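Exercise 7. Given the encoded structure of a 529-residue chain, write a plausible sequence.
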């Protein structure tokens, strides 16, 4: 199957309509109707009109290519063993009726003569080698394409020189000629969180189609079509087809009335709340594996580390936001900027990664929505206390449904605690001067290793103030909104601010009853650098 044979150009730039509808890729068959990666699921997908059926391929212990997403048989079939350790005769007994793990050759036979092509997703080069032998030996006239890791595609090409390959793309940067040249791929396969106009444009200029996955909700389907995606991979072919048919019938213009900020904020706050609890569970349960900026194992280094938890959480959050608000911009700590409209989300998936790597339970996720640069909604998720601190502009701040409100009664620095974080040139010198000045006032300084929590705790009344050497909305946007909505004070050298400090500017948050005195001590310490 050559993807470009029926490649679409996507909607006109003026939004009046798509010249050709994107084709639909059914992921793992029809998993919302039948068990994934089975013959019944494939049959349903084909009956629903899927242009391509994407399936996962692995090998058994005796070298039979079978359909299975997971490395083990446990999730779907109740057997904890790795499929690669189990012979085909035992694998074939799992399940009942037609709900069984199929052989790849049986799938090729099932789709022989059908309009649906087959996309084989393979993760292990050894599995790819077995799958290529199966396809090469097949006498069935089923169109087959391949996708997987670079190692998998490198295994497929020598075995099947004319194979149609889809190149996975997991970056917000548009592919360049160096990225695609010599690979022979017909299609760029992009996760929805990485789909941008520049990526679509670059792929089309390189003569490649663009497939986006996984898109299930109506608005993201419309968004992907407007952006010019040629194929849309989905778990719900019927719903996606209905959305595309509606766009073809009614046109692709956006609604006449944009939702108000109040409407967006209401939906965004509910979404952020759900995301925060999902991230808490994931962070607590997921084993920490340290990776370098390139995503490969790295030895400990003095610089801020990155873990697989950071990356996994960011991709999870991006996917949730994209599904609900596909046109919003997004800036994340690990993957950078995605373009969008006047709304933009800022995310630090794990603030305090060094603590996480070293087993110290003092980390947080920070997620903040802004409109035109002003904070609208913010949540800080503390996995280790199971807390979600959340705020919405003009609606206050809460934790565990309890309102956070700082009174304005005078507070002495003596006996109080001020949180602080270091970072950037000269930060330690200023921190030392601050600690010394506060010690003279019998006030303690704590450096805990998560600037998000350092600021957010002040909103919760835990500490009289907190200071950070450089504001960044990725790390501090949600926490600053929490402080403001709890009645706290946000200050820069020049005085209080209503909103965000300038990016890169040192800032202080404080209980209103101690703000003046603490600000004087803090600005004096900054001046001593």
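Solution.
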């Amino acid at each position: 199957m050559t993807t470009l044979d029926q490649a679409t150009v996507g909607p006109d730039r003026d939004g009046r309509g798509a010249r050709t509808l994107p084709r639909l890729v059914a992921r793992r068959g029809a998993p919302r109707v039948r068990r994934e990666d089975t013959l019944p699921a494939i049959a349903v997908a084909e009956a629903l009109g899927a242009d391509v059926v994407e399936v996962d391929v692995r090998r058994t212990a005796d070298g039979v290519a079978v359909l299975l997403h997971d490395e083990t048989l446990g999730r779907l079939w109740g057997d904890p063993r790795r499929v690669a350790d189990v012979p085909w005769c035992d694998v074939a007994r799992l399940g009942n009726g037609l709900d069984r793990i199929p052989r790849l050759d049986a799938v090729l036979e099932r789709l022989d003569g059908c309009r649906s092509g087959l996309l084989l997703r393979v993760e292990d080069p050894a599995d790819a080698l077995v799958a290529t032998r199966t396809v090469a030996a097949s006498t069935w006239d089923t169109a087959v394409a391949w996708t997987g890791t670079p190692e998998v595609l490198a295994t497929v090409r020598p075995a099947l020189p004319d194979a149609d390959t889809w190149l996975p793309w997991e970056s917000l940067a548009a592919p360049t000629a160096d990225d695609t040249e010599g690979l022979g791929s017909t299609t760029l396969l992009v996760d929805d969180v990485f789909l941008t106009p520049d990526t679509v444009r670059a792929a089309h200029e390189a003569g490649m189609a663009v497939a986006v996955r996984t898109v299930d909700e109506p608005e993201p389907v419309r968004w992907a079509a407007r952006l010019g995606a040629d194929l849309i991979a989905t778990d719900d072919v019927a719903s996606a087809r209905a959305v595309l048919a509606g766009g073809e019938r009614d046109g692709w213009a956006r609604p006449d009335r944009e939702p108000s900020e109040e409407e967006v904020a209401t939906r965004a706050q509910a979404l952020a709340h759900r995301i925060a609890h999902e991230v808490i569970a994931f962070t607590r349960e997921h084993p920490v594996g340290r990776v370098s900026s390139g995503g490969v194992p790295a030895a400990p280094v003095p610089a801020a580390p990155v873990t697989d938890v950071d990356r996994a959480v960011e991709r999870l959050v991006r996917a949730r936001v994209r599904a609900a608000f596909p046109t919003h911009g997004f800036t994340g700590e690990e993957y950078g900027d995605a373009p969008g409209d006047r709304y933009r989300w800022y995310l630090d998936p794990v603030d305090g990664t060094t603590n996480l790597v070293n087993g110290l339970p003092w980390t947080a996720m920070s997620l903040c929505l802004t409109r035109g640069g002003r904070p609208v909604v913010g949540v800080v998720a503390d996995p280790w206390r199971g807390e979600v601190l959340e705020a919405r502009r003009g609606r206050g701040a809460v934790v565990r449904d309890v309102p956070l409100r700082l009174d304005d009664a005078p507070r002495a620095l003596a006996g109080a605690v001020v949180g602080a974080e270091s970072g950037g040139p000269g930060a330690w010198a200023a921190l030392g001067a601050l600690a010394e000045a506060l010690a003279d006032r019998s006030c303690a300084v704590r450096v805990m290793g998560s600037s998000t929590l350092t600021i957010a705790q002040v909103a919760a009344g835990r500490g009289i103030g907190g200071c950070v050497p450089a504001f960044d909305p990725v790390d501090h946007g949600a926490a600053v909104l929490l402080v403001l909505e709890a009645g706290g004070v946000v200050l820069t050298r020049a005085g209080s601010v209503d909103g965000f400090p300038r990016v890169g500017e040192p800032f202080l948050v404080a209980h209103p009853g101690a703000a003046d005195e603490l600000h004087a001590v803090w600005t004096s310490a900054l001046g001593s650098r």
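Remark. The CA atoms of residues 408 and 513 lie 5 Å apart. Students should compare their own answers with the one above.
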